[in-house]
């Protein structure tokens, strides 16, 4: 209802009435569209834009409902959402308070992006990995001259490494003209690099945005131009979550323009700090070396003496050595004299004349003992022999033969004891007390035994 001029409504009242009208008239509806600008802050809520070819609608999915959503909710996804049309009173933002989300098919842009990415990867367009000069002497930056990306890059380069020469190549980074302009600039820069060798790196960059805003960097021809570039290329497009085909085709990529500048050049302050530390180390090392050399010089000076003192010391040392040599020679001569006397005494004790005299004395004593012992030994042997002779004569058959008996032997020398052991005509030999007789047996006769037991043949 309109109000009189004297009682105007506050902004809060207007937004409140608008919210109530939207919630009552439209109510809860299902809306289908493509996701864009999905944001997940630390609060746990999810904010995004739902759009189609002609319009877009801001949406809010609060944390209490977001935990029950199974859909991945990525930029470019086509979804169906159920929610209450409302208005955020503090800012007057028209929005849809989402209660449920369902997948409604893949977004056309994202599907085209994935198909082109797979085809270029199969062709090897994403295989560049050439090292970029660190730091580059002359950096060529392809970006919008009015965007925040060039300001961030120049600020980082000026703070970290102002020695690098930077040339801005102004090109559009959004819209239909962006990709052809960047391709043309890449071709021109590569042709000029053959004439100017100091140009050694290219940085393609821009700030973040939606998938549509960054679509120029997903151009197939731009990716191929980056791949065929003679100069190494770094791509720093969008924010950390943004990834384009230009990033894959480049030799290196960075999540943001500032990060790309940081990767391209070293930190001047860190280098200065390092140089200061190295200078301090060098100063300490020089001081320590000087102190060591000074101490060594003092030690050498203390050891250094006048040549006359050295000669006097050497002369004294020579005299001492000469005295030691004389003492050693006298001691050695005395030792050799004692050893010679000892050997002489041993030789005197072992002299051949002395040994001959001793042997002669022993021979003379042995001869005397021999002459004295021989008569006694002969007498003992005579007495022993006489006893043996008497004993032999007592049992000798010759003694029996001396009393008239005889011993008969056959031709083989066997003693004949019985007449029956002979045969007529057999030749025998008779041994008498003196001499022998040759006999022939005529016939054996009977045997008679004598008074002393002798046998007599008849």
UniProtKB/TrEMBL annotation:
Coiled coil: 275-346
Pfam families from the UniProt entry: Exonuc_VII_L, tRNA_anti_2
Any one biological process term the GO annotation gives: DNA catabolic process
Signal peptide residue numbers: none
TM ranges: none
A Gene Ontology cellular-component term: exodeoxyribonuclease VII complex
OB-fold nucleic acid binding domain: residues covered: 9-101
EC numbers for this chain: 3.1.11.6
Gene Ontology terms, MF aspect: exodeoxyribonuclease VII activity; nucleic acid binding
Residues annotated as domain Exonuclease VII large subunit C-terminal: 128-438
InterPro entries: Exonuc_VII_L (IPR003753), Exonuc_VII_lsu_C (IPR020579), OB-fold_nuc-bd_dom (IPR025824)
Catalyzed reactions: Exonucleolytic cleavage in either 5'- to 3'- or 3'- to 5'-direction to yield nucleoside 5'-phosphates
Keywords: Coiled coil, Cytoplasm, Exonuclease, Hydrolase, Nuclease
Compartment(s): Cytoplasm
Subunit architecture: Heterooligomer composed of large and small subunits.
Sequence similarity: Belongs to the XseA family.
Function summary: Bidirectionally degrades single-stranded DNA into large acid-insoluble oligonucleotides, which are then degraded further into small acid-soluble oligonucleotides.
Protein name as annotated: Exodeoxyribonuclease 7 large subunit
């Amino acid at each position: 209802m309109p109000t009189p001029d004297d009682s105007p409504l506050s902004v809060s009242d207007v937004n409140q009435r608008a919210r109530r009208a939207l919630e009552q008239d439209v109510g809860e509806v299902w809306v289908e569209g493509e996701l864009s600008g999905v944001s997940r802050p630390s609060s746990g809520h999810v904010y995004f834009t739902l759009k189609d070819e002609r319009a877009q609608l801001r949406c809010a999915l609060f944390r209490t409902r977001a935990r029950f959503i199974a859909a991945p909710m990525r930029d470019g996804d086509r979804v169906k959402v159920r929610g209450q049309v409302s208005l955020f009173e503090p800012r007057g933002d028209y929005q849809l308070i989402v209660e449920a989300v369902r997948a409604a098919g893949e977004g056309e842009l994202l599907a085209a992006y994935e198909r082109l990415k797979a085809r270029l990867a199969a062709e090897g367009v994403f295989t560049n990995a050439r090292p970029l000069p660190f730091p580059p002497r002359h950096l060529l930056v392809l970006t919008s001259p009015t965007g925040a990306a060039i300001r961030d890059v120049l600020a980082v380069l000026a703070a970290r490494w102002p020695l690098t020469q930077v040339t801005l190549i102004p090109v559009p980074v959004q819209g239909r003209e962006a990709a052809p302009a960047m391709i043309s600039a890449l071709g021109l820069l590569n042709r000029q690099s053959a004439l100017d060798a100091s140009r050694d790196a290219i940085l393609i960059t821009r700030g973040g945005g939606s998938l549509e805003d960054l679509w120029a960097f997903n151009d197939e021809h731009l990716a191929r131009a980056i791949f065929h570039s003679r100069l190494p290329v770094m791509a720093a497009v969008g924010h950390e979550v943004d990834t384009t085909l230009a990033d894959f085709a480049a030799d290196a990529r960075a999540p943001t323009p500032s990060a790309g500048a940081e990767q391209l050049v070293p930190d001047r302050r860190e280098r200065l700090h390092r140089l200061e530390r190295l200078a301090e180390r060098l100063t300490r090392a020089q001081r320590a070396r000087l102190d060591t050399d000074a101490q060594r010089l003092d030690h050498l000076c203390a050891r250094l003496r006048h040549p006359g003192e050295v000669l006097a010391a050497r002369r004294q040392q020579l005299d001492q050595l000469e005295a030691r040599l004389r003492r050693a020679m006298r001691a050695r001569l005395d030792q050799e004299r004692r050893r010679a006397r000892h050997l002489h005494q041993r030789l005197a004790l072992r002299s051949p004349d002395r040994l001959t005299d001793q042997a002669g004395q022993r021979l003379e004593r042995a001869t005397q003992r021999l002459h004295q012992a021989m008569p006694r030994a002969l007498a003992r042997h005579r007495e022993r022999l006489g006893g043996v002779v008497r004993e032999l004569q007592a049992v000798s058959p010759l003694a029996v033969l001396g009393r008239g008996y005889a011993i008969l032997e056959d031709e083989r020398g066997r003693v004949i004891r019985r007449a029956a052991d002979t045969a007529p005509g057999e030749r025998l030999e008779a041994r008498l007390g003196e001499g022998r007789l040759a006999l022939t047996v005529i016939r054996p006769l009977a045997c008679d035994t004598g008074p002393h037991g002798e046998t007599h043949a008849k």
